[in-house]
Amino acid sequence: MVRSQQQNTSPRRPFRISELAAAADVGVETVRFYQRKGLLEVPTGPATGGRHYGDGDVKRLRFIRQSQAAGFTLREIRHLLELDRMDDRAQARAMAKERIEALDAEIERLEQARASLRKLATECAKGGAGPCPILSAFDPA
């Protein structure tokens, strides 16, 4: 996981918000959104001189994005970040297992939908009299 945000202690020069966004392949508004949600800290310093971010911020931002891609909600991501600070691997693993179960259920639902559509497409390809089986299947009446 990602350790709690680091101050700009890396030997690399600090990032401005646009550079942070580019490094994590997101938009500046995405960075600001995560800040408003409390997932990413707003660095201290005068806004006029430009606030600066470090490598830890890039890692955290990438972690947030990857977690979202895995299907975690922002609330769950916040909890994962808290677990990381506490080094609670057991709870993080439990959350991952729950997410895997949810993904497995969604995959099963999608596979069933695909099988149904394949069957309808096959029936439709046969032609014949009457309405198209695909259109009939989605008719609410």
Structure overview:
- This protein is mainly α and 141 residues long.
- It folds into two domains: 1-87, Multidrug-efflux Transporter Regulator, Chain: A, Domain 2; 90-141.
- It is built from six helices and no strands.
- α4 packs antiparallel against α5.
- The longest helix has 37 residues, at 89-125.
- It is elongated and about 75 Å long.
* CATH topology term of the largest domain: Multidrug-efflux Transporter Regulator, Chain: A, Domain 2
Query: Beta fraction of the residues?
Result: under 5%
Identify low-pLDDT runs: 4-11
Number of domains: 2
Secondary structure tally, helices: 6
CATH architecture of the largest domain: Orthogonal Bundle
Basic shape: elongated
CA-atom Rg in angstroms: 23 Å
N→C terminal distance: 51 Å
Total strands: the figure is 0
User: What would you call the structural class?
Assistant: mainly alpha
* The top level CATH class name of the largest domain: Mainly Alpha
Largest sheet: none
**Oligomerization status of the protein chains:** single chain
Helix content: 55-70%
